Every structure is written in structure tokens, then in C-alpha cells.
């Protein structure tokens, strides 16, 4: 047995659900785009520094006449090139802010 009040409540909830869903999907897509941008920028910075290290390899190796020192320099450059680096663009602590925390920080202002 539905009354007129129940019908209006259902209508209100159903009419507000669609805009909320659209806003939630939009927020999710924006967050996903930001994460992809940060990942792309992180990889770009790493690849540029590795390319610079490879470009200066012969100059650095040729700067010292001792072969043992050249081998040590080559090992250090190889370690730099093949180890994943940190650029500060992909820190895990930055992605842990929830929507509730963001809204509560806005409400405190």
C-alpha cells in the first residue's frame, strides 16, 4: 500500500540518483586521467635521465685512463640505467586521500 508521500519520496530519490551517478563517473574519470598523467610524466622523466646517462657514457669512460676506474664507472652507470628510479611523481601516500577527507577539510575552512 503506497501512499502519495511514498511515491514522491521514490520519485525524488530516483530523479537525484542519475545526476549523482553522472557526477561520480565524472569525478572517477578525472581522477583516472590525473593518475595516468602522473604515471606518464614519471616515465618521461626517468627515460630522459637514462638517455642522458647513455649519451654521456663514452665521455665519462674516456675521461679516466685507468681501466679499473672505467669498469667501476661503467658498473655505476649500468646500475643507474637498469634500476627503477624515484622522481617523486608517483608517491603512494599522495593517492590515499578520500572524498570524505577532502570534504571535511573544505568544511573546516
Tell me the radius of gyration.
Answer: 27 Å
Secondary structure tally: strands: 0
Q: Name the poorly predicted regions.
A: none
Major pleated sheet:
none
The number of domains: 1
Kindly name the structural category: mainly alpha
What does this structure look like?
The chain is mainly alpha-helical. The protein has one domain. Helices cover 77% and strands 0% of the residues. It has helices spanning 4-55, 57-62, 67-82, 99-108. It starts with a helix and ends with a helix.
Gist of the model:
The chain is mostly helical. 77% of the residues lie in helices and 0% in strands. The model has no long low-confidence stretch (mean pLDDT 79).
List key phrases describing it.
4 helices, mainly alpha, 109 residues, rod-shaped
Amino acid at each position: 500500500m503506497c501512499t502519495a508521500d511514498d511515491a514522491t519520496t521514490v520519485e525524488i530519490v530516483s530523479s537525484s540518483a542519475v545526476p549523482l551517478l553522472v557526477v561520480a563517473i565524472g569525478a572517477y574519470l578525472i581522477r583516472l586521467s590525473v593518475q595516468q598523467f602522473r604515471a606518464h610524466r614519471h616515465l618521461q622523466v626517468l627515460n630522459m635521465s637514462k638517455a642522458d646517462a647513455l649519451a654521456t657514457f663514452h665521455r665519462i669512460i674516456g675521461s679516466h685512463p685507468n681501466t679499473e676506474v672505467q669498469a667501476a664507472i661503467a658498473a655505476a652507470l649500468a646500475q643507474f640505467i637498469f634500476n627503477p628510479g624515484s622522481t617523486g611523481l608517483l608517491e603512494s601516500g599522495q593517492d590515499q586521500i578520500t572524498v570524505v577527507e577532502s570534504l571535511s577539510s573544505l568544511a573546516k575552512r
